Amino acid sequence: MILAIESSCDETALALFDPATGITGEWIHSQIALHGRYGGVVPDLATREHLRNLGPLLERVRESHGFAGIDRVAVTHGPGLAGCLAIGVASAKSLALAWRVPLVGVNHLRGHVFSPFIAMHAEAPAEFDARFEQLLPHLGLVVSGGNTLLFMLDRSRRITVISSTKDDAAGEALDKGAKLLGLGYPGGPLIEQRALQGNREAYAFPRGIGPRADLDFSFSGLKTSLRYQLEKMTPAEIAERMDDLCASYQQAVVDALVRKTTIALERERFRSLGLSGGVANNQTLRAALGRVAKEDGIPLLAAQPRHTGDNAGMIAFAAWVDPHVHALASLGIEPGLAL
Predict the structure, then answer these.
(1) Where does Fe cation bind (predicted)?
(2) Does 310 belong to an annotated binding site?
């Protein structure tokens, strides 16, 4: 049984994972409402909230499941906000010491890498290894507020990064676009909601595609293009065309993600395609990648909504499924940790 702690940004989360049955419990305290007042995450406030809420969440774990049977503690040790990571790592160290169990540090991005497979494990834990092997090599796309990257997961479960973002991540571009449009925070879901009623071809925003050989992503130019477009419009025009603006802006993000993924699939034979990270909840993106996977004759494995954001379930699962995670005698935080 693994107890996992996630505190890399603005969500305090705990989870219990039993390899024989799957995730047996998840507990989370969201700070979205707090940071929404400021239009984005305030690191000092996020750290304070982790300090306030981690203890009460642990008490909820004790009340509902107890601590008996926990033989490993896993914690996100990077990447993320330094103060937030420190709260989680210090708590994990204390628990591992008190319970005399191994302490495991998990890379937050590796949690996203393996998150699309959590549902498959839950369906049939005893058959997981055999089914998992049949889906490798696997091409995965992680799309979040801080990261956008394509990677390969090979048969030995090693991760090779194929491409990443040169500047803004896709989720960051959506949040910044929403701020320019006056929609609030978090921006991605708000843009998606307005885009449902809009014309995605109303405005020709750039896709940041570049040469076909270059699979790296770039979204900074998209944000700038939106700003220039808004400067040409009156407040009344912006309000009137808000749905079209959102639909066109969102489609530019989706097209860039889908095109790079399609090219990666053409270069090598993969047995499955994965989608994870906070932006993976976007239904337009899911549908587009579903079509790409179908055309390639492979399944699309999309992380469940509750495992797309900052969550401890994926950290616990990665601590078990990732052979490159090892117990450590000591553990420090690594805010800039790469995949």
Answers:
(1) 108, 112, 310
(2) yes
**192 annotated to a ligand binding site:** yes
Cα 197 from Cα 217, distance rounded (Å): 27
129 annotated as belonging to a binding site for a ligand? no
- Geometric angle at alpha carbon 307, from 121 and 11, rounded to 5°: 140
Question: Is residue 282 marked as binding?
Answer: yes
Residue 188 annotated as binding site: yes
Structural domains of the chain in order of their starting residue, each with its CATH number? 2-126+307-328 (3.30.420.40), 136-298 (3.30.420.40)
Please give the distance of CA 244 from its chain centroid, rounded to a whole number: 27
More confident residue, 330 or 33: 33
> What are 5-49's pLDDT values in tens digits?
999 999 999 999 999 999 999 999 999 888 888 888 899 999 999
Task: For residue range 156-212, list pLDDT tens digits in order.
Answer: 999 999 999 989 899 999 999 999 999 988 899 999 999 999 999 999 998 876 666
Is 108 annotated as contributing to ligand binding? yes
| 12 vs 249: CA distance, rounded Å | 31
Q: What does the pLDDT look like over 215-251, one tens digit per residue?
A: 999 898 999 999 999 999 999 999 999 999 999 999 9
> Binding residue per annotation — 248?
no
- Residue 281 annotated in ligand binding: no
143 is in an annotated binding site: yes
Which one, of 331, 278, 338, lies nearest residue 302 by Cα? 278
- Is 311 annotated as ligand-binding? no
Residues comprising the chain, all counted? 339
| Residue 104 backbone dihedrals phi, psi, to 5 degrees | -125, 130
